[in-house]
Amino acid sequence: MAAALIAAAIVAGCTKQINQQFEDQVNDTIHSLPVVGNDSGLNVHAVRSIKEVVIHKIAVMPLIDAPDQVDKALPPGSAESVTAALYAQATVVGGWAVAPQDDVESAMQQLPPTTLNNLDQNAAALGKAVAADGVLYGSVGKYRERVGYDYAAQTPAAVAFTVKFLDEHSGQVVWTAKYARAQKALSENVFDLPNFISNRGRWVRAHDIAEEGVQASIANLYSKLTVKPVVQGN
After folding, report:
1. Nearest-CA neighbor of 58 among 131, 132, 108, 119?
2. Range of 1-5, 12-16, 71-75 with top mean pLDDT
3. pLDDT class for 6, splitting at 50, 70, 90?
4. Pick from 24, 33, 158, 211: CA 20 to 30 A from residue 130's CA?
């Protein structure tokens, strides 16, 4: 009987120690988790007067490469890929008219090559050339492709870009969005569970991350502007 009591006490002591260790591990994990609601990768700034900006038609100017100090260079076609996603999403949203790509390309041929130094000037000139109320333009800072396979990536994909919206009538940049995101393993970020499920547990490509950022950016811009479709005859 005494032996049984001693054994029970030892088991209880071990269990208490294990529980304490587990509690400590949980607390350490909680403290290392990212802040909820700060993981979308999208940061937006809009001027107070943006709701006064009335938009009937917008233009999407080709984005340019502006690699960050880490990557130094971008894969060929990076800016073109994000531009195509912006144009497609802007067209899908509806409400405003989007200047046809052919018109934009023709107008861009009449302008000097776009650089970071003349980005704003070319955007204003493009809007005037295609009779747009506003121009969406910007640069791509990172477009790192995934290294590995769908379920066994050595290096995750990462994308970063900045887009601005120029009000053609005032000449003011009324909205700026900065997006930067790299896919993380679920063990690194449990709050990313919805994306983990939607991606079926796969390591996605840079294009997928870029599209996610573009969709969030366009939705945010659309919600802030006053969009009035053009009525035929007016």
Report:
1. 132
2. 71-75
3. very low
4. 211
Domain locations in the chain as residue ranges = 1-32, 37-227
High-pLDDT (> 90) share of the chain, %:
59
Is pLDDT at 148 greater than 50 in this prediction?
Answer: no
Tokens encoding 139: 């640069």
Pairing of β 158-167 and β 172-182: antiparallel
Q: Which CATH superfamily is domain 37-227 in?
A: ABC-type transport auxiliary lipoprotein component (3.40.50.10610)
Q: Say what the pTM is.
A: 0.74
SS (H, E, C) the chain: CHHHHHHHHHHHHHHHHHHHHHHHHHHHHHHHCCCCCCCCCEEEEECHHHHHCEECEEEECCCEECCCCCCCCCCCCHHHHHHHHHHHHHHHHCCCEECCHHHHHHHHHCCCCCCCCCHHHHHHHHHHHCCCCEEEEEEEEEEECCEEECCEEEECCEEEEEEEEEECCCCEEEEEEEEEEECCCCCCCHHHHHHHHHCCCCCCCHHHHHHHHHHHHHHHHHHHCEECCCCCCC
Inform me whether the pLDDT recorded for 12 exceeds 80. no
Mean pLDDT, the chain, as a whole number?
78
